[in-house]
Design brief:
- The complex is a heterodimer of chains A (234) and B (284).
- Chain A has 2 domains: 155 residues, Rossmann fold (3-Layer(aba) Sandwich); 64 residues, no CATH class.
- Chain A is built from 10 helices and 10 strands.
- The longest helix of chain A has 16 residues.
- Chain B starts with a helix and ends in an 8-residue tail after the last helix.
- The mean pLDDT of chain B is 93.
- The longest helix of chain B is centred in the first third of the chain and has 29 residues.
- Chain B has 11 helices and 2 strands.
- By secondary structure, chain B is mainly α.
- In chain B, helix 1 runs antiparallel to helix 10.
- In chain B, strand 1 and strand 2 form a beta hairpin.
- Classes of the chains: A alpha/beta (234), B mainly alpha (284).
């Protein structure tokens, strides 16, 4: 459903990622792993339209999206959970979730979606009136994911979900992603936590200094010499 | 007598508040001070005056038209001036709007001369209540109540509506708001329109009692800047309370020290508050 083709992108015309090609198929959970600064965030920002590619193309459901502004792309069914969560700290939890459904016109539909995310994340229902910034890091991450789900996405982009979370919360957040993926939403996540990310992925890509150096199923990559040496210290 | 002075202060303060609300909205959203804000007010007052002079419109009847005109001026200011410097260092937008203010002021002088003009007869002219020793001018009362009503409407719009939520979201992060599907360019234009509508209301109400001339918005613009800083940048209710405070300071100072000191008192308060609370009385 998503095809990234020879993408070169960066900031102020200085490329950070070079000729990156990757694909997410219907219903898949795909991980892009690599160390800090490898360009993972840049790829996601290019897909969601926050960053215009220097060259290459991005297609979603057979339509080129690399020239569209970000607010149009979310309407096509791509929701982005940004790095560092970036919830709206000064707004209530409920208003944050309503912002997630901004592109949906039908109020009844918005209420249905709200009930659904409250079912998945009961803690958000309890904290509904609280300001986003007063919640813990883990709760904010849940809110960021829930907010993205409010957009009724076909594809969820998840940036460095584990950053700044304690291990228990990381496991919990990964469980949530798996659950969401089982409901038919394709997921493209980027992670520094190589092992965890590849374990739950159908397929994965390894990104090193802006280039894709290996790809395969999650299990294949976990077993590969490259991953063992570079990321697991074996 | 003190009561009379306090009342006068609150009434004018309410109008100051509304002017400042318009300014603080734009600041809160874009971190830009619109130096032409006082000139927006002047445009509203001229709109009201000309509708009165040429078409015999009462200022209250021309209020919606003035609101529309200044809202449009706000949108044009965003699209033609602010948008072009929005990504440049902060000082650029400040200088650009400062230049715009000089341009509008001189254009008004060129087109309509520097003469003072008055709406000499309106529905409200010379009407007043007298309660015991208190005299309440109807034009002042209507201006204050109208300004407060508009402030309330703006606050509710920001807090309770979908567009208001989008404005809040864009103020906190443009990129993340885009990811939610918000066309942030449109939100900027809308916010400039709302900001213009605030001074549109204030200008039409002020035209009942104050003379209209090319410089007539300048002092309001300056006071609004002071009020925004006192109230905490981007804070609507902060601007409201600070506006009342400045209105009171001005009338109290004017009454006890002499009218020549009335603005000096207001600016002195500003200097003192900034020494001790740089983020304003109601800032975070």
């Amino acid at each position: 459903m998503l095809k990234v083709n020879k993408l070169t992108a960066g900031y102020d015309n200085v490329p950070v990622v070079f000729d990156v090609s990757l694909e997410v198929r219907e219903g898949e959970l795909v991980s892009v792993v690599g160390s800090n600064g490898a360009g993972k965030t840049t790829i996601l920002r290019a897909i969601s339209g926050l960053l215009k590619p220097i060259s290459g193309s991005i297609e979603f459901m057979g339509k080129r999206i690399d020239k569209l502004p970000a607010h149009e792309i979310v309407k096509l069914g791509i929701a982005h959970v940004p790095e560092g969560r970036h919830i709206f700290g000064k707004m209530s939890v409920r208003d944050n979730l309503l912002m997630g459904a901004y592109a949906i016109e039908d109020d009844a539909e918005v209420n249905r979606l709200l009930d659904r995310v409250y079912e998945i994340f009961p803690v958000l229902k309890e904290r509904e009136k609280q300001k986003g910034e007063t919640m813990s890091g883990g709760e904010q991450q849940m809110l960021a994911i829930a907010r993205a789900l409010m957009a009724k996405p076909k594809l969820l982009l998840v940036d460095e979900m584990s950053l700044g979370l304690m291990p228990l919360m990381v496991d919990k957040a990964l469980d949530v992603l798996k659950h969401v993926n089982k409901t038919g939403v394709a997921v493209l996540m980027v992670e520094q936590k190589v092992q965890e990310a590849l374990e739950i992925a159908d397929r994965g890509y390894i990104l090193q200094t802006g280039k894709i150096v290996a790809q395969g199923t999650g299990q294949e990559l976990l077993g590969s010499e490259l991953v063992k040496q570079a990321y697991m210290g074996m | 007598m003190l009561l009379q002075v306090l009342l006068t202060g609150v009434l004018i303060g309410s109008v100051y508040s509304l002017v400042a609300v318009g300014l603080t909205l734009v600041w809160g959203l874009m971190d830009i001070i619109n130096f032409a804000h006082g000139e927006f007010l002047m445009i509203s007052m001229y709109t009201t005056f000309w509708l009165y002079a040429l078409l015999k419109f009462d200022p209250l009847a021309s209020l919606p038209i003035a609101v529309g005109v200044v809202a449009l001026v706000g949108v044009l200011t965003y699209k033609l001036v602010v948008k072009r410097v929005a990504n440049a260092p902060g000082l650029m937008a400040l200088l650009a709007t400062f230049g715009l203010s000089l341009f509008i002021r001189n254009l008004a002088q060129f087109l309509w001369s520097p003469n003072y003009r008055f709406v000499s007869e309106s529905l409200l002219t010379d009407k007043r209540f007298i309660i015991g020793d208190l005299i309440i001018g109807l034009p002042q009362l209507v201006a204050a109540v109208g300004s407060f009503a508009m402030t309330l409407i703006i606050a509710l719009l920001i807090k309770k509506t979908k567009t208001g939520r989008a404005i809040q979201a864009t103020a906190q992060s443009k990129d993340i708001a885009e990811l939610m599907g918000v066309n942030t360019e449109r939100i900027y234009a809308i916010t400039f329109a709302i900001s213009g509508a605030c001074v549109g209301v204030a200008g039409a109400l002020l035209a009942n009692t104050f003379p209209v001339y090319p410089e007539c918005g300048a002092m309001y613009g300056l006071l609004a800047f002071v009020i925004v800083a006192l109230g905490g940048f981007g804070n609507i209710w902060g601007a409201f309370y600070a506006g009342i405070l400045i209105g009171l300071a001005e009338t109290l100072g004017g009454f006890y020290l002499g009218t020549q000191f009335k603005y000096a008192i207001a600016f002195l308060i500003y200097l003192l508050v900034l020494q001790f609370r740089p983020k304003g009385l109601f800032g975070w």
